[in-house]
Design brief:
The chain is of the alpha+beta class. The chain has one domain. It contains 2 helices and 5 strands. It is globular.
Length: 86
């Protein structure tokens, strides 16, 4: 699973050949959540409140790049790195 970004101990990844809706995986320690790119909500799993706030802030800033990466992954191409939240 390609890593798209890493910040504040949070890892953002996308799987190849996953079905819609467009989403990414966010992991923080033993926690993992799947985030819908279009709606920016959790579709499965959970993250601690502060980690979730950081992930959603980052995703809002990078929604276009996330959709581009989703399109790349859906055609079995590696996603491009997205700058971390600073």
């Amino acid at each position: 699973m390609p890593t798209v970004s890493v910040f504040f101990g949070i890892t953002i990844q996308m799987f190849w050949r996953e079905h819609g809706p467009p989403h990414f995986h966010a992991t923080y320690g033993e926690h993992e959540a799947i985030i819908d790119i279009r709606e920016l909500n959790i579709t499965r799993g959970a993250l601690p409140r502060r980690a979730l706030a950081l992930v959603l802030e980052w995703a809002e800033l990078n929604r276009e790049a996330l959709m581009e990466d989703w399109n790349l992954c859906s055609t079995l191409q590696p996603p491009l790195p997205i700058p971390p939240l600073e």
